[in-house]
Amino acid sequence: MRDIQILDTPLTTQPCHDAVADPAAGGIVVFVGAVRNQTKGRKVVQLAFESYVPMALKEMGKIADTLSQKWGILHVSIHHRVGVLEIGEIPVIIAVSTPHRQAAFEACQYAIDTLKETVPIWKKEIFEDGTVWVSAHP
Amino acid sequence: MKIKLIAFGIAKEIIGPAESDLEVKTPCNIGDLKRILMTQYHEFKKLQSIKFAINEDYQEDHFQIHEGDEVVIIPPVSGG
To answer: What whole-number distance in Å separates Cα of residue A112 and Cα of residue A29?
Structure first.
């Protein structure tokens, strides 16, 4: 089972957990991202996410392919939010189930690390006195 | 030939509209397009990286662009 979605409504962990639950699973790892309140000491007010949705879904599908090939996962669920998020809200949830826990930890880590490198989603930090596209400049 | 440029994130702010048409000479590959954009919009030179996608896949510099292609400018991604 592969549950990959980009949503403009608040994310919750339960649907992701339910999507990967399986009697053959010995472990489920769920990564939950969070909107942090500061960057390098500067107070963040909100984060605005946008995505090139069809390609983002395709790139997340490639991540799921790798999880199957390399870690033999049972199921994966990736939900990413777009729009304006407040501090503490959830931008991303990744859930992975595998027969043994070690593979679930590794696969989930690979998934979030790769998502941040390849999936066409962009976030803009909104400060009290301006905005910055994250990672845009060296 | 005419191609369609689609921009996201900071690229959209650099170019102006999210979608625009661009007239380029034939042949034109991704590397050529990158040079055209860097010349026309100096802000692109300051970015960490700039990638391009056609048909929802990343394409490298040698990839030939065809008339009517939709080329998506992918500035450094920052999801998660």
So the answer is: 12
